[in-house]
Amino acid sequence: MSPFTIAIDGPAAAGKGTISKAVAAHFGVAHLDTGLLYRAVGARMLRGDDPIEAARKLEADDLENPDLRTAEVAQAASRVAIIPEVRAALLDFQRAFARRSGGAVLDGRDIGTVICPRAEVKLFVTASAEIRARRRLAELLDHGFDTDFEAVLADVKARDDRDMNRADAPLRPAEDAVTIDTSTLDVDAAIAAAIAAVEARRAG
Ligand code: DC
């Protein structure tokens, strides 16, 4: 198979991460969760660092921080993601990753629109806010966090609002993206739909 880039965008907790990992494994290509870059910058901001400086000096080790998955860091990530200088500082790393010779899957918010507008395949993975909050709640309770549906739904909606309404690289589907709504799909069906969409794009 010739090298190709698959861009997977969508709102928080729609299933992008799971789908991206499975698609990358299926096609034998590398995967970058670009949200981790913003989370690493958000985590540094919470520790008192200037977010622009943190983005410019980001190192591989920063992505290993186990705290990056918390709701607090997610909100901080969404806040630093508004800053154009932060986005600019993270651009080259993402584009270089996308050009890897073996092909790559990148998932995030602006991969198909800004980072890789010429990606061979673009998917937009979404689901209703309520379904996303329910899934995220199950995940958090599983990991021992003490929270409830209303709090998680409010978090999801706040992040949607910030991600979709920022001036620089807002979350939206690229014109040529295939949308996959996972609201009524289980994990296996969502992965199968994504793989089928990639194969259809590559065939056509
Ligand atoms: O995918 P995630 O939930 O880990 O992303 C965390 C935040 O980072 C998200 O709310 C917005 C920001 N983000 C972004 O602005 N652009 C990306 N390509 C990926 C994430």
Features:
204 residues, alpha/beta, Rossmann fold, 9 helices, 5 strands, binds 2'-deoxycytidine-5'-monophosphate
Shape: globular
CATH superfamily: P-loop containing nucleotide triphosphate hydrolases
Which sheet architecture does the biggest sheet show?
A: 5 strands, parallel
Per CATH, what is the topology?
Rossmann fold
Q: Give the H and E element order.
A: EHEHHHHEHEHHEH
Query: How much helix, percentage-wise, in residues?
Result: 40-55%
Under the CATH scheme, which architecture would be assigned? 3-Layer(aba) Sandwich
Overview of this structure, please?
With 204 residues, this protein is an alpha/beta fold. It has one domain (5-198): P-loop containing nucleotide triphosphate hydrolases (Rossmann fold, 3-Layer(aba) Sandwich). It has helices at residues 16-27, 35-46, 51-56, 71-80, 84-98, 111-115, 129-142, 149-165, 187-203, and strands spanning 5-9, 30-33, 104-108, 121-126, 178-181. It has a 5-stranded parallel sheet, sandwiched between helices. It is globular. The two termini are 15 Å apart.
Reconstruct the topology from this structure.
Layout: E1 5-9, H1 16-27, E2 30-33, H2 35-46, H3 51-56, H4 71-80, H5 84-98, E3 104-108, H6 111-115, E4 121-126, H7 129-142, H8 149-165, E5 178-181, H9 187-203
Parallel strand pairs: 1-3, 1-4, 2-3, 4-5
Helix pairs in contact: 1-9, 2-4, 4-8, 7-8
The structure holds 2'-deoxycytidine-5'-monophosphate.
Compact overview of the structure:
The chain has helices at residues 16-27, 35-46, 51-56, 71-80, 84-98, 111-115, 129-142, 149-165, 187-203; strands spanning 5-9, 30-33, 104-108, 121-126, 178-181. It is an alpha/beta fold. It has a single domain (5-198), classed as 3-Layer(aba) Sandwich (Rossmann fold), CATH 3.40.50.300.
